[in-house]
Amino acid sequence: MPTKYFNKEIETMSRPEKEALQSERLVKIVKYVYDNVKPYREKMDAIKLKPSDIKGIGDIYKLPYTVKKDLRDNYPFGMMAVKKKDLVRLHASSATTGKLTVAGYTQKDLDVWAECGARSLVMAGASEESIVHIAYGYGLFTGGLGMHYAAEKLGAVSVPVSSGNTARQIQLLQDFGADILCCTPSYAIYLAEQMQLQGIEIGKDIKLKGGLFGAEAWTEEMRNEIESRLHIKARDIYGLSEIAGPGVACDCEFKTGLHFQDDHFYPEIIDPDTLEPLGYDTEGEVVITTLTKEGMPLIRYRTRDIASLSLSPCPCGRTSVKLNKVTGRSDDMLIIRGVNVFPSQIESTLLGFEGVEPHYHINVDRVNNLDTIEIVVEISPSVSIDEVKTLESMKRRLADKIASAISVSAKITLVAPGSVERSEHKAKRVTDFRKLK
Ligand SMILES: [Zn+2]
User: Fold this and answer.
1) What is the value of pTM for the model shown?
2) What is the dihedral of CA 203, 205, 210, 214, to 10 degrees?
């Protein structure tokens, strides 16, 4: 079957044409932020950079970075480029420091975001015939409303269930026969588990074919779990509330990386320590410039997400730059006895290990000046919790696997099925007691 696109002209545009479009848009947006956003004017004046110095996309590296602190310092509306009468919606995400990060959208910004979401839905196999079950939370969080307008832009039917009330979610999935599911990856696993417990025949009573999962860093192993448990194709969708919610990038059936909607959002990778730009296929911090945003345009915004970019061709025919799986946020990285550990490395190992379930929690602490890490993971229902010998052997083998994956030894605690707390929103996988002390 030939690949379907939402916007073939843009999605399959040649690289030279795309770069010309990006250049034209960058020149415009830089002048626009200089004229309309005081913090940008100050940043550029400070380094004696004039909008006219930016002549094309190749000059992007001359521009100053934007960091989360800029957004907090100018809370709530100091980064907006338009008057309040031109804003039509606000989204916000919570920050560890307490103050929210706010993003303002004009109607055109919402249209662009919906278009990017619609392109993603098509990558997940959706069409205007589809029924899209949206179990992301609706509210200041961008997940729910983002996919909602994306589904409507596509001409599909949106089912705005929002998060929570799992029994009702399952009922509606059966009654309405949705073919596309949007939620966090951890909630997808939870839904599958609850359906199995209720004796629902997935594939017969549930007609899902594809799903878009995001808002949490997740692994290929988690994708395989979701695909086999829900009998669907699971797509990875990327977004962040400061830039636009889900739809900034999404992977297609060939899983060669997430197609970045780089006609609207220009990605770069930098070394988070030296701030030097890195080339393709090198892992570093993702930096994004919004090329068309009116409400709150951001120039070289440091996302804290760690990933790489690639320009390798994709058999689907889309020509965008691709984002290779976000391995985690640099904020999420744990430093255990001096070693950098990403929770995603632990997840990969757990999911590749027979006899345990994709429900786990990581506890980090410091005892007698030594960092400790404990991984609490559920055993599969098929493993007997009373077979001490089996459990001891599993624990030992799992501890070995984890140690070779993260280069630090961890304590493994196996618990009964159902005992790790389930999340209906974003799963909280790590508790760092060192920070709480
Ligand atoms: Zn592709």
Assistant:
1) 0.87
2) -120
